[in-house]
């Protein structure tokens, strides 16, 4: 009996691939050179014709992408052209995102340098109508109120984060997490109204004092510290906790001696960034602290000047002639940006110094 023969199996047809180009690829400097040349042309056209900066940057991004993709398609093939197209999209998005940042810094510095002198840092606005005057009282008021805010907010925020990560189990922890999430998104003016209403109960209507402003800023600062510190504490490996428990160390001592030292760099960064977040708030301080031309260093007695409110009043009520007040407002804004920059650099330094060393 003969065995039926099987038909030979045929493999499915593979899609035809585009032949690979064997020509010389474009230089890795081709894309930056194209965008750089177009950017120079755009700057020249902007200076000559007065074009809008955003329009110039957008035009450079679109035209540069088309030129690079067309040249790559002609020389290197479709696959490499697609890769360069995606790369151009990334660089174009980055360039477009840098426009408001660079323009903001340039505008503040160019207009703030007009009054960046010694008088601005060692005099107040008492008796000043036109030229002269400074923000000595506002700088000190900002530092005092921000310091009180940090003293009140940092312990509460860190202890809350430790509870949620190390101890929080059950409905209470879920409600605290929900409340912190809600407080993170509340408008700053709401915190100012809350602090004002709270102090009106004890001191009567029209109360203005620096401590009330610190309470308002604490409402904004505590949720930021809790959320950021909670994420930092979650990054501590559980193996460290388990090793400590295995040696018979109690939980509280494990948290103090193992968890917190390991997360110290991240916690320091979180606290510093939270301070930088609230130091420039204006609306809560307008409601609770107000403004004064004199130097008041007592946060429990009367109005105090702060840099954000000082800049606001100098811009909205500059006096006659108005250019002197406007110049003081720009300089105050520049000083505030420098303070925030210094705080961010301190956060970076803390993270670098206290981060766990993994090298042997």
Automatic annotation (TrEMBL):
Gene3D superfamilies: MetI-like
Topology of this chain in the membrane: Multi-pass membrane protein
Domain of life: Bacteria
Cellular component terms (Gene Ontology): plasma membrane
Compartments (UniProt record): Cell membrane
Functional description taken from the UniProt entry: Part of the binding-protein-dependent transport system for phosphate; probably responsible for the translocation of the substrate across the membrane.
Identification of the protein by name: Phosphate transport system permease protein PstA
Naturally occurring in which organism (per UniProt): Petropleomorpha daqingensis
Lineage: Bacteria, Bacillati, Actinomycetota, Actinomycetes, Geodermatophilales
């Amino acid at each position: 009996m003969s065995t039926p023969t099987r038909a030979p199996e045929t493999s499915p047809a593979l899609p035809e691939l585009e032949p690979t180009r064997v020509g010389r690829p474009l230089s890795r400097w081709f894309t930056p050179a194209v965008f750089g040349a177009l950017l120079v042309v755009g700057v020249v056209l902007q200076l000559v014709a007065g074009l809008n900066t955003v329009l110039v940057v957008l035009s450079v991004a679109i035209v540069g992408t088309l030129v690079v993709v067309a040249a790559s398609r002609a020389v290197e093939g479709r696959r490499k052209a697609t890769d360069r197209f995606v790369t151009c999209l990334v660089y174009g998005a980055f360039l477009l995102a840098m426009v408001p940042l660079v323009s903001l810094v340039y505008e503040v510095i160019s207009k703030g340098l007009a009054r960046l002198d010694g008088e601005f840092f060692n005099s107040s606005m008492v008796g000043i109508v036109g030229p002269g005057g400074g923000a000595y009282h506002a700088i000190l008021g900002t530092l005092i109120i921000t310091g009180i805010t940090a003293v009140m907010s940092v312990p509460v925020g860190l202890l809350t984060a430790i509870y949620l990560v190390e101890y929080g189990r059950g409905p209470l922890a879920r409600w605290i997490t929900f409340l912190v999430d809600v407080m993170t998104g509340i408008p700053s003016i709401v915190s100012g109204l809350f602090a004002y209403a709270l102090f009106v109960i004890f001191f009567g209507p029209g109360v203005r004092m620096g401590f009330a402003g610190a309470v308002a800023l604490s409402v904004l600062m505590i949720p930021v510290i809790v959320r950021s510190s909670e994420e930092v504490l979650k990054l501590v490996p559980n193996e460290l906790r388990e090793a400590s428990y295995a040696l018979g160390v109690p939980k509280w001592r494990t948290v103090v001696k193992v968890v917190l030292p390991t997360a110290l760099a991240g916690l320091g960064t979180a606290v510093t960034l939270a301070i930088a977040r609230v130091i420039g708030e204006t609306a809560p301080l307008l409601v609770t602290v107000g403004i004064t031309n004199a130097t008041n260093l007592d946060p429990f007695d009367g109005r105090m000047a702060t840099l954000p409110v000082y800049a606001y009043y100098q811009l909205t009520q500059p006096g006659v002639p108005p250019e002197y007040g406007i110049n003081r407002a720009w300089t105050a804004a520049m000083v505030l940006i420098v303070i925030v920059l210094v705080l961010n650099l301190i956060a970076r330094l803390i993270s670098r110094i206290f981060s766990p060393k993994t090298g042997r």
